[in-house]
Design a protein that fits this description.
By secondary structure, the protein is mainly α. It contains 13 helices and 2 strands. The protein has a two-stranded antiparallel ribbon. It starts with 15 loop residues before the first helix and ends in an 8-residue tail after the last helix.
């Protein structure tokens, strides 16, 4: 193969193995270039999507920042609105502290006396038989009602301020491209510390003068849950009434929830038989708050704790629960 036409030895060409190596090198280089192009396009796509979601876009007539970027901007602005004026913020929170002191007067005088024993009821005059097997003194439901009234009234007013004073700004910015969802969740997120601080400021004076038969955690969690419900009611109220009318509407809502939808006043849970009526009461935060307060405070009265009589039956609270309707499993 290496001989020339004239029979002399000429230059030898590349061998078969060399040609295979060259082709393999070229093929691998082309594959590498293809992979690099694909990864480069993927990186550009990811970078573009990241900037579209998290980064500000160029101001043009037709585009607007992404939803997450709007959420961050609205959260930053809401934090400045809530916490920049420290004295205004604390003044708003001290309302809950004052209401806690007022409601604590009833919490310091809690009394409960269960029903009379069956032998006593057997010889009771006829006119007293109806109330013989129910609690003779029960101030826990009344205290739960006062608690709900104070927290609902203060929570609705504080919650309504979140959106009530910004309706004009919201409609103007919404017309310019602001999305409602990130705006709403940003305001609600910033309100979380307000709900917690309001609950703590109410809890401190309320629990200071109260003989708590439950645990501190049960009482605190119940108050925080009630405040979340009240703030949510305030959000709704601010959308349907003028902000100047909110205090009056807050009193109306607190009274209606207290008397009608608490389950212990004008309408007791045991008197509700229809499924629709029960579903309405399931939506009432005050109904759950009073039941949680009543159950946590009276559960320890069923038996004696400590001493030689430890574990001995003490007070029959089941009769009182059934008189209200707390024994109805369809509510649980």
């Amino acid at each position: 193969d290496g001989l020339a036409v004239d029979g002399t030895l000429g230059d030898a060409g590349p061998s078969f193995s060399q040609r295979v190596c060259t082709q393999a090198t070229l093929l691998s280089f082309e594959l590498w270039v293809m992979v690099v192009d694909v990864l480069s396009d993927l990186a550009d796509s990811i970078s573009g999507d990241w900037n579209a979601i998290f980064g500000p876009q160029k101001k043009t007539r037709n585009n607007r920042p992404g939803s997450l970027w709007q959420f961050f901007l609205c959260t930053e602005r809401a934090m400045k609105q809530v916490f920049a004026n420290f004295y205004g913020f604390m003044g708003e929170m001290l309302i809950h502290l004052g209401i806690g002191f007022v409601i604590s007067n009833s919490a310091g005088k809690l009394e409960y006396m269960g029903p009379y024993p069956d032998p006593i009821c057997a010889i009771t005059p006829y006119r007293f038989i109806e109330s013989c097997d129910t609690p003779q003194i029960d101030l826990y439901t009344a205290t739960g009602q006062f608690l709900c009234f104070g927290t609902t009234f203060a929570g609705v007013i504080t919650g309504a301020n979140t959106f009530g004073y910004e309706q004009v700004n919201y409609f103007r910015e919404s017309a310019a491209g602001l999305s409602s969802v990130p705006y709403f969740f940003a305001k609600v997120l910033v309100n979380f510390p307000k709900v917690i601080i309001a609950g703590v400021l109410f809890y401190l004076p309320f629990s200071s003068d109260m003989l708590n038969n439950g645990t501190d955690g049960q009482l605190f969690n119940m108050l925080i849950g009630t405040y979340f419900f009240a703030f949510a009611m305030g959000y709704c109220v601010s959308q349907v009434v003028d902000i100047k009318m909110v205090p009056l509407v807050a009193v109306f809502i607190a009274v209606v929830l207290l008397i009608i939808f608490s389950g212990v006043a004008a309408v007791k849970l045991k008197d509700i038989s229809s499924t629709g009526g029960k579903n309405i009461f399931k939506l009432s935060g005050n109904r759950w708050t009073i039941q949680a307060f009543y159950t946590s405070q009276t559960e320890s009265l069923t038996s004696l704790d400590g001493g030689i009589y430890d574990g001995t039956d003490y007070i029959d609270i089941q009769a009182g629960k059934e008189d209200i309707g707390y024994g109805d499993e369809s509510f649980d």
